[in-house]
Amino acid sequence: MADTALQLGIVGAYMVVALAVGAVAYRLTERTAEDYYLASRTLGTVVLLFTTFATLLSAFTFFGGPNLAFSAGPEWILVMGLMDGIIFAVLWYVLGYKQWLVGKRHGYVTLGEMLGDRFGSTALRVVVAAVSLVWLFPYVMLQQKGAGQAIVGLTNGAVPFWVGAGGITLFMIAYVALSGMRGVAWTDTLQGLFMLSLIWVAVAWVLSAVGGAGEATALLASEKPAFVGLGGGLYTPQYIISTAVSIAFGVTMFPQINQRFFAAGSKKVLKRTFALWPVLVLLLFVPAFMLGAWAAGLGITVPEGGNVIPALLGEYTPTWFTALVIAGAMAAMMSSSDSMLLSGSSYLTRDLYRPLTGRDDASDEATDRREALVARLGVVAFATLSFIASLYTPGTLVQIGDTAFSGFAQLTVPVALALYWQGTTRTGMYAGVVGSQVFYGLHVFPVIATVGGLVGLDVALPTAYLGWTPGIVGILVGLVLTVAVSLVTAPAATENRTAYAVTGIESD
Fold first, then answer.
1. Do the Cβ atoms of 288 and 199 come closer than 8 Å?
2. Biggest CA pair distance of the chain
3. Residues 189 and 46: beta-carbon distance below 8 Å
4. Mean pLDDT of the chain
5. Does residue 350 register a pLDDT over 70?
């Protein structure tokens, strides 16, 4: 009982600190959408780097990934630690920099606003926002599911899953409503530094207890010889490449990441952050996933439905340190969720509520207050529904996360073409966005196949195409459809074909 109280006390103390930071940010936040959602586009290198970093630290990072390394070997580091880090850094520059340029000039807050203006289409703006919110739902649910599992493991079941997940959900709702982007970015920076430090201390502690990295690796080779050589685990080259590309492309279109492309203080800030990104990713993913792999050689037993990191630390570190690491992991989950809910509320109010209610150009005080209320109600509804879904949705954290990553990844190529190819037409964008989403959706939503079976159609689709995942094939489908349809259709009269021309804003 005393251990449980200590563990919950550490987690609770973190929440109090986060709320205090949020309260300070609230006092400094201007009552404008640009400041609430983007911190007035003033984020510097350290804060932008770590808020992006912490926003991506999730249940997938600290529980799903190490669990996969525990069951299938450390080759997962190639995906998340190396390939994904480099690919996303490139996309950060290629797409993020261009978005920052046009966002600064035109005052865009969301991806939907940017595309809607480029193609003169409210409907496209709504479609992009709706697609983003659909895929955001399972990823928010992933954080709640991970938080519930962490609390159960931390307290040995003394606190049930629904209480842990529900408590974190309530905290996130309160924090997002209070702090806005400024508070989120500040706490993200603290969380990122905190978690990065803890994971390396955890590695040092465990390795010192078992005789060093050489001994831990030797035990792994003895127990799981296939884990210490490339190609010996459960991965294929197609799977590794598909997953790395899908994750990097998906991350680029995550609302909470994509909006950070608009929030940078300068061109120099963007260039510094994308250059530092792969280094920061390696510093986190290598130790986290190696802990999962080493645990397989150390004979660690993971409870059914549990996670390997808490089990490993419980075996080799004191109770208070395990609680610290779990608190840090939960901080990572919350730093993802609060950003998701903030970005989700901006998509809801600016890309759905505004245009669909005819208030797109309104800027009076009454409209601003109404939008603020809609945003907060949207956060409450979104978080509550995802919490309920987390209680009943089967599947591992890796499966849930991979589904969301690949769903967002389908947007990347059409958006890139819209930014760089003036030949892209509105009809081409519709074809690329909707076509790739339908293709991917047919592979991941069983209800579609069920309905097809009821009407006598054989709709069973393959789980891979010559080893390549449906997510990566869907990206190619989006490319082909966007280009092909744009080539055979004329631009609409309302399209702003020169809106994204770099000439004239490169010096900003």
1. yes
2. 70
3. yes
4. 80
5. yes
Alpha helices in 155-305 (DSSP H): 161-210, 213-223, 237-253, 255-258, 260-263, 267-297
Find all residues with CB under 8 Å of 73, minimum gap 6, and list them: 224, 226, 227, 232, 233, 234, 235, 293, 296
- Nearest alpha-carbon partner for 336 in 257, 249, 253: 257
pLDDT classification of 506: cutoffs 50, 70, 90: very low
Task: Please give the backbone phi and psi of residue 233, each rounded to the nearest 5 degrees, phi first.
Answer: -90, -150
What was the pLDDT predicted at 46? 86
Q: Where are the domains of the chain?
A: 1-406
In this structure, which amino acid lies at residue 438?
A: V
Tell me, rounded to whole angstroms, the distance of Cα 290 from its chain centroid: 22
How big, in percent rounded to 5, are the helix, strand and coil portions of the chain?
Answer: 80, 0, 20
Contact 397, 59 (CB under 8 A): yes
| DSSP bridge pairs for 468 | 465
Q: Which residue has the higher pLDDT, 296 or 392?
A: 296
User: Is the pLDDT assigned to residue 395 strictly greater than 60?
Assistant: no
The 10s digit of each residue's pLDDT in 36-94 is: 777 778 888 888 888 888 777 665 677 777 888 888 888 777 776 678 788 888 888 88
- Reference 52, options 200, 240, 262, 197; nearest CA is 262
Report pLDDT digits (tens) over 297-307.
898 888 776 78
Q: What is the 3-state secondary structure (H, E, C) of 398-430?
A: HHHHHHHHHHHHCCHHHHHHHHHCCCCCHHHHH
pTM above 0.90, yes or no: no
Contact 443, 452 (CB under 8 A): no
- How is domain 1-406 classified at the architecture level of CATH? Up-down Bundle (1.20)
Strand partners, 465: 468
The rounded distance, in Å, linking the Cα atoms of 328 and 183 is 18
The residues pairing with 43 across neighbouring beta strands, listed in sequence order, are: 264
Torsion on CA atoms 71, 77, 81, 84, rounded to nearest 10: -90
On whether the CB atoms of residues 181 and 109 are closer than 8 A, the answer is: no
